[in-house]
Amino acid sequence: MANGTVLISGGGIAGPALAFWLAAGGFRPTLIERAPHLRTGGYVIDFWGLGYGIAERMGLEEEINRVGYHVREVRFVNDRGKRVTGFGTDVFTELTAGRFVTLGRSDLSKLLFDKIKDTTEVIFDDEILGLQEHPAGVRVNFKQGGERAYDLVIGADGLHSGVRRLAFGPQQQFEKKLGYAVAAFECAGYRPRDEDVYLMYGQPGRMLGRFTLRDNRTLFLFVFAAGNDPVPATLEMQKAVLRKIYGGGGWECPSILNALDGIDDLYFDSVSQIRMNRWSQGRIALTGDAAFCVSLLAGQGSALAMISAYILAGELFRAEGRYQEAFRTYETLLRDYIDKKQRGAERFATAFAPRTQLGLFVRNLVISTFAIPGVARLAIGREIADALQLPDYRWPSPTN
Fold first, then answer.
1. 12 within some domain
2. Is the pLDDT of residue 371 over 80?
3. Judging by beta carbons within 10 Å of its beta carbon (0-12, 13-18, 19+), is residue 90 exposed, middle or buried?
4. Which of 10, 33, 175, 281 sits most deeply, having the most CB atoms within 10 A of its CB?
């Protein structure tokens, strides 16, 4: 299957990253995204380690530092906005040799799309409705009509993957909810501004964060305890949930909820993991959150998307299109690493929004110990270490 055709569903991080490396390996990728255009807004991510290293291999280091932010401090505040605890980010910079940046997820996605514009057919405002595998490939039916055939189909379409649903079954089979929900939005003109500081305000079972962006914009992040109820269906219903949970809260809750009134783009989802026994079936495979969502609160989804896309494309290239072999090796290389990340993320979820006053006290006490020389280095160093060696594929095409 040299120079084979590959349909990739999903225009977030894993999809365009996979398209880049497949094209470098001589494949002919097509990327389909159901949104009518590149998504904007959303939330910010911390980017370091192997994901950062892959961005370097793609020639993106200068660009991600240009659009990114270098946070000085993470600060936890009380009802009156007074500092309760926190930590500086110097230790992150030191432990990663300066290869650490905070950036908008949508900004990273745009940089990746810029890299594939000349090598990948991109289809917006459409999605896959049907997949029929046959001995020579996969026939794909599209929502906007028509049918096309591809050698392989890859689902890089996130937590709520349509490819996973069509090829493996309903999401409920694979989803593990962690008992929280998350929401995020941006607005212009909010005051006050605390440049390069991530502020977090917590009460039992709920957390609210604020981070200053460029162009007079501010990002707000909500994390709160939730049951197994489905995500509210409409924007107004989602806003109503946030008003109910954060109404009566201290700090800047009233003014942030007022800012919520004027926005028409709100990210809102459950905090979940995807756990599957296998990531491929026949000529169809999954990557990124579609295969193994670790959870948004882990802060590593974009890096893991870059890593999994790189290895999947590399193994397809190395196996010269023998997809069964490539899919097996891809999963073998990543499975233990991903399992460890998921276990860590599950433990970490409760630290974001402890459900009790005692839990908040203990969380803040632990963070306060970061001021003790060596403690922050030990604790953070253990969390950001990457116990995975990236294969060095010898790509035939230039990669930057």
1. yes
2. no
3. exposed
4. 10
Give residue 36's identity as a one-letter amino acid code: P
DSSP state of 172: G
**CA neighbours within 13 Å on the CB side: how many for 201?**
19
What mean pLDDT comes out for the span 315-342? Answer: 95
Can you tell me the distance from the alpha carbon of 46 to that of 63, in angstroms, rounded to the nearest whole number? Answer: 15
Q: Is 350 exposed, middle or buried (0-12, 13-18, 19+ CB in 10 A)?
A: middle
Positive or negative, the CA dihedral 144, 32, 101, 178 is positive
Helix (H, G, I), strand (E, B) or coil at 271: strand
* CATH code, domain carrying 78: 3.50.50.60
pLDDT one-digit tens code per residue, 123-172: 999 999 999 999 999 999 999 989 999 999 999 999 999 999 999 999 99
Percent of the chain with pLDDT over 70: 96
In a domain, 197, yes or no: no
Under the banding of pLDDT at 50, 70 and 90, the label for residue 381 is low
The whole-model pTM stands at 0.94
Q: Which of 84, 91, 100 is nearest to 376 (CA)?
A: 91
Domain that holds residue 309: 5-174+273-384
Asked whether the beta carbons of 303 and 384 are under 8 A apart, the reply is no
Q: Examine residue 254 and state whether it is found in any structural domain, yes or no.
A: no
Q: How many independent structural domains does the chain possess?
A: 1
